[in-house]
């Protein structure tokens, strides 16, 4: 039996094709879980170097030694040069000690908590590390240790999926078909796609899968749409997820197998709307656009998926920023509060997909602090993403040369009215078909896995 796995930016799910029907894997009482991991113990990061009193003493001793050597050699090196050289030595020795520490990434991962339980455990313990949306980091330029850690995170998530599926299905599942975006989020171009697939393949094998294959997510969604279509027709499949937006042009329905003609994709999705909504609707309460705090500080605070940016935000000093903004920024730096704010933003975005207004209570920052947001504010915040979506849809329309019979929408962001309206406007002659926002891709993966 081959398991279909949707390893998502925001949520993950799995399903198998059993006795002629798709059977979703249950994770507790749910059919998916948040792709979030909590480590109860703090992970040492070689990039997070800071001088302790002991390291300061070591630094000064090296500077004095260098000064004596410089005088003996008849040179006159400046204090800045001597300090820079000494700092490199101290930092290198500190990194080597980190690597030699017996508490490895593997031992930390054994105590990890996943899904919504990860957020609750992080908030309750008020210490440790929270990693949200590890998929969004797979295509970035990673330090070897960071790559090892991300691979370990993906391994444990996939192992959790495999063991849960094996128990539910009554057999040891060893084969997997993983969904993948057309374009991963990446800082290194096309090499990011290759790296992301390499990490996922290695993680799946380490998780106990003997056979691992990949299928582009819009092609998987097309498989799902094909299964519920009686007559043959041409369709554009639009899959709008948390981290990516993927489109496929396909012929589906009828007795013939579905045919994927072409696929397109951009590394943009729901998390980009979350960021824009946070900056426009929430960060003004922390002084964005009002104080002299640099704009990128607010981006760092909002991007909970980016561990280096989160670390940078926690290291800023806001003691001199006028009240109420300085104290609020300091409160936001407290452990877990950027994650709490992100969850509030995410809940707001979801609520405004079906309601005209939403109120968020930010008591964890300041008693009685609230944010009122309405649907027009969300649409405005989503403007940059919608512009990119319109450009992508226009390219698809030009490449195809005509309207398809149907536009099939799936992915979590397909619930949003502004996404639906944008897709419909791009293909005015097509019928808009609403797929399962959460499970369209994973159902298609299960169907495709059964055909291998």
Observed structural traits:
4 domains, Nucleotidyltransferase, domain 5, 16 helices, five-stranded mixed sheet, alpha/beta, about 450 residues, six-stranded mixed sheet, 16 strands, single chain, about 20% strand, globular
Write the layout of secondary structure elements.
Blueprint: E1 2-7, E2 11-18, E3 21-24, E4 33-34, E5 36-39, H1 53-72, H2 79-100, H3 105-109, E6 113-114, H4 116-125, E7 129-132, H5 144-169, E8 175-180, H6 190-206, E9 211-216, H7 217-227, E10 233-240, E11 245-252, E12 259-266, H8 270-282, H9 295-302, H10 307-314, H11 325-332, H12 337-351, E13 357-361, E14 370-374, H13 375-381, H14 383-400, E15 406-410, H15 417-426, E16 431-434, H16 440-451
Parallel strand pairs: 1-8, 8-9, 10-15, 15-16
Antiparallel strand pairs: 1-2, 2-3, 2-4, 5-6, 5-7, 10-11, 11-12, 13-14
Helix pairs in contact: 1-2, 5-6, 7-16, 8-12, 9-10, 14-15
Q: Describe it for me?
A:
- The chain has 452 residues and is an alpha/beta fold.
- It folds into four domains: 2-45 and 114-217, 2-Layer Sandwich (Nucleotidyltransferase, domain 5), CATH 3.30.420.40; 53-100; 231-269 and 385-435, 2-Layer Sandwich (Nucleotidyltransferase, domain 5); 271-381, no CATH class.
- Helix content is 46%, strand content 19%.
- It has 16 helices and 16 strands.
- It has helices at residues 53-72, 79-100, 105-109, 116-125, 144-169, 190-206, 217-227, 270-282, 295-302, 307-314, 325-332, 337-351, 375-381, 383-400, 417-426, 440-451; strands spanning 2-7, 11-18, 21-24, 33-34, 36-39, 113-114, 129-132, 175-180, 211-216, 233-240, 245-252, 259-266, 357-361, 370-374, 406-410, 431-434.
- The strands form four sheets. Strands 1, 2, 3, 4, 8 and 9 form a six-stranded mixed beta sheet that branches. Strands 12-11-10-15-16 form a five-stranded mixed beta sheet, sandwiched between helices. A three-stranded antiparallel beta sheet has the order 6-5-7, with helices on one face.
- The N and C termini lie close together (10 Å).
